[in-house]
Amino acid sequence: MIELHYWPTPNGHKIAMFLEEFGLDYEIHPVNISAGDQFRPEFLAFSPNNRIPAIIDRAPADGGEPVGVFESGAILQYLAEKTGHGTLGDIRGRKTVNEWLFWQVGGLGPMAGQNHHFVQYAPERIDYAMTRYVNETNRLYGVLDRRLAGRAFIAGDTYTIADMACYPWIVPHERQRQNLADFPDLARWFAAIRDRPSTVRAYARGEALRSGPTVNDASRSVLFGQTASSHTK
Predict the structure, then answer these.
(1) Could you tell me what percent of the chain has a pLDDT over 70?
(2) Can you give the residue ranges of the GST C-terminal domain (predicted)?
(3) Which of 4, 43, 121, 124 is the most exposed place for a label (fewest CB within 10 A)?
(4) Which residue in 165, 55, 157, 154 sits closest to 107, CA to CA?
């Protein structure tokens, strides 16, 4: 049994996509980030960066004590290693999968996240910041579009954790001020993953948790106003 501690954000959806794709037995533990659930001591015990998602594997491969894993990229790697699914079998293939996984966690996610913040949520309209992150998101879309030319998936013919990591960050492309029609290979790949039954199931489970927008006036300070001194042990 995998405990999935998450909220339906792009990083949260990645893990649900893996679990649904490969039919793992899992249980969702909602962490309402708008309400500050990510700062509860019991969550911080296995997710010290107070971010979702995180998992607890109650049946680890070594048969030992339950294993907690935080950081979405690390979780995907852990699950791929545990199950033998979602990656490629040879060293060169795994290298490629990991390159694009790290490209997402170090590039596409952070840049698109800043795009979301300054375009959608920042209380001040800062033209330079909006232009900077919209343009960088656009550049990264171009990188991914070129990578997908002549390939069904990011690593080749096989659907892997690289695809699962990237897809949720393309879902809000309109909010990111991107036009998928400008990226035909990316658009083709996006549609193929969107229509996978496992993707549909993963997103449906997430939507069932929502009772309103993640970011509103009440949640802004929780989501955007934290410092090292905001929460003590």
Answers:
(1) 92
(2) 90-215
(3) 124
(4) 165
